[in-house]
Amino acid sequence: MTDQAFVTIRNAAKSYGALEVLKDINLTVNRGQIVAIIGPSGSGKSTLLRAINELDPLTSGEVWLEDVQINKKLPHRQYEAHVNQVRQDIGMVFQHFNLFPHLTVRGNITLAPRMLKGLSEADADKLAEEQLAKVGLSEKIDEYPSRLSGGQKQRVAIARALAMKPKVMLFDEATSALDPELVEEVNLVMKQLAEEHMTMIIVTHEMDFAASVCDRVLFMDQGVVVEEGPPSVIFHDPKEERTRNFLRKHLSR
Amino acid sequence: MDTELILRVAPFFLEAAWVTIQLSVLTALLGLGCGALGAAARLSRLAVFRWIGAVYVSLWRGTPALIQVFILYFGGPQIGIQLDSFAAGTIALGVNIGAYMTETIRGAIVSVDRGQAEAARTLGLSRWQTMRKVVLPQAARLMIRPLGVNINALIKGTALVAPISVVELTYTAQRFIGSTYKPFEMFLVAGVLYMAIIYAVGHGINWLDRRARIV
Ligand SMILES: Nc1ncnc2c1ncn2[C@@H]1O[C@H](COP(=O)(O)OP(=O)(O)OP(=O)(O)O)[C@@H](O)[C@H]1O
Ligand SMILES: [Mg+2]
Q1: Best CA proximity match to B171, nearest among B68, B20, B5, B21
Q2: Is the CB of B206 inside 8 Å of chain A's CB atoms?
């Protein structure tokens, strides 16, 4: 692991009308680092995550991936071309999977690589097989998403994101929509990515998981980062009263 | 009921039914074209196009189709548009049903879960690639039934070209009533033929809808 700043967020602010959802947030994630974002509902975790790949652009502030500013102000056409390019390097996994129901697992995984990287059918198939093997679903390659369990869907969604060979992966409550018995299989895949030193930013409600895989934990409340530090500090010896209150509710579950 | 009369006029009615079918098919195609363009305009990033789309829909849905047919056929020559009755009827009805289809198509597109487009954009697909590969294939399934309703309405709506003397089913019924004084039989024959066409088309729509669902 190096200490190179990989994802940098500077003075990020976001408002919906009068509602300030993010207030002056700063965050640096190094290459290979794994950062968890925790906090109560409505604190702005998803908004922050979605600002990183311009799904919900910031009102002000900067987002960088290595030496490329993601949220550059550009004329419309150039802006579109720019975000389409940088998004290829940022994988995102959603709470509700968002698999394409009209495509098979293979189609889901190969759509973007084929369209954007011009992969031949054979190469795309190989890629799909590789990625599926990684998430342990090789035998499902020709299934449609409707035939998969929630845990399997999420693993395919992860494989789909990985097929673009992203530099960083964003997870927005990847296991929140899953039945409890299906959570573990998804967590395992994420742990495996952690072992491969994938840079990851993970919004989660699962404190045990955050404690076991993350290098750093951010606690957000009402649009600000209240406290951040290694899991050992945040979970066992937090300084802020608000963090303690939040953890009391969530760790006792 | 005069069955012998019915048998005698049957060949004329069958010919008229063929005209109704041609009218319906051409109207549906024109309507789908107008509907696709209208929906694209309504969903455009640019306000001008959204405005044009909205005006189209509200003007064409806000006035009787019969008036639209009359304006084009009777009013057209006054402003230099000279069309025969079949062409005028087809165009007026096609553009009219296109306004309804605009809303049908737009509705299907916006009812595709937003997360679908988000997932595609996140992978790096452009707006248009996302529309073409992810949103439209799903919207297409959703629009089959409501477009079927539009098509059902347009088939019945072809009767509106009878007043401008297109020799289709309704016009033919009226013409034979003038010579036979048997309105019951004549309208009954026309009605049965309309029903046959609508029934066949309805079956086609059901078949398409079922096929689109297998997955
Ligand atoms: N499109 C929007 N328009 C207006 N307000 C919004 C919009 N999206 C989010 N918000 C508001 O922004 C705030 C932060 O939302 P966000 O989804 O980022 O919270 P979160 O921390 O992810 O919560 P959760 O744990 O419930 O997912 C909330 O008050 C929410 O109501
Ligand atoms: Mg959220």
Answers
A1: B20
A2: no
